[in-house]
Design a protein that fits this description.
single chain; 166 residues; mainly beta; five-stranded antiparallel beta sheet; 2 helices
Length: 166
């Protein structure tokens, strides 16, 4: 082995700890191909199914909706569910994201307190992974409370709105 090949090997040692994984050195008819680590592996995207909507009685949920809005760690059902007082129900976030009350900062809110909504009416947007997802009413009702501030991060199952049935 000559001095040039030893220099190429020394360069390889100098490359450790960097992002370089391969070095090819060519001198005349000689070629030295050095590789660090393993070749990169292919990354495959696997679709993840969204959890199905679950309805649970209020007694089965030890965390009241106010605790969920405050950031409780226990996930709650993603669909409308009865509240503790049994005269109201909540609409919860179906996934983790950012809560928006309107389509843009200049637009009015989709719903306001006291307003009656129909089943399927858009209530808000939850942005998740750069996608704007419209959250719709599962059942008709009168909006009693908006439980999350506009632009706030929300967790899966966190209560967003409290409604009373109409």
């Amino acid at each position: 082995m000559d001095v040039d090949k030893l220099k190429a090997i020394a360069i390889l040692a100098a490359l450790e700890g960097t992002d370089v994984t391969r070095l090819t050195w060519v001198s005349g008819q000689e070629t030295l191909d050095l590789r660090l680590g393993h070749p990169p592996t292919a990354v495959h995207a696997v679709p993840i199914a969204a959890p199905a909507a679950v309805h649970a009685p209020a007694a089965a949920n030890p965390h009241p909706p106010a605790a969920a809005a405050a950031g409780a760690a226990a996930p709650a059902p993603a669909a409308a569910k009865p509240a503790d007082d049994k005269k109201t129900f909540t609409v919860n976030s179906p996934f983790v994201g950012t809560f928006y009350r309107s389509a843009s900062p200049d637009s009015p809110a989709f719903v306001d307190a006291g307003q009656v909504v129909k089943k399927g009416q858009v209530l808000c947007i939850v942005e998740a992974m750069k996608l704007m997802n419209e959250i719709e009413a599962e059942q008709p009702g009168r909006l009693v409370d908006v439980l999350v501030q506009n632009g706030s991060p929300v967790e899966y199952g966190e209560a967003l709105f409290r409604f009373e049935p109409v």
